[in-house]
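WARN retry 2 of 3 for item q-0093 after timeout on previous attempt; input resubmitted unchanged.
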Amino acid sequence: MAEREAACTCGELRVTLEGDPVLVSSCCCTRCQRRTGSFFGVTAYFHPAQMTARVGESTEFRRPGAEATSHFCPRCGSTVWWDFDDATMELVGVAGGCFADPTLPGPHRMTFTATGHPFVTSPKGIPTYEDGPPE
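OK item q-0093 returned
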């Protein structure tokens, strides 16, 4: 089983995950745009049990009205992962770019395309959703 490490920009905050993500999703919502400072976010979703190690201290941020708590590096500010309030979700989201690993599987879908920038396109063959994904 593959072991993957996601790290912040300065490398002081790292998480190790066992195996492949359950799902990789690209998102064009304005929350992801602001979280990443980019035109879209990429999240690799894992089961919490797949997170086998955490190195470094994280600071938590919970945006008002959010369904998740972000964990970011207090030194460089990179968001590395987030936990969801909904206990039925049973997943942890990890910022795809924090892996800096070209073997990470590509997105399975692109969501919230209605708020995406017109020049952002999804990879061929993946489903796109103007709003969130279907339940």
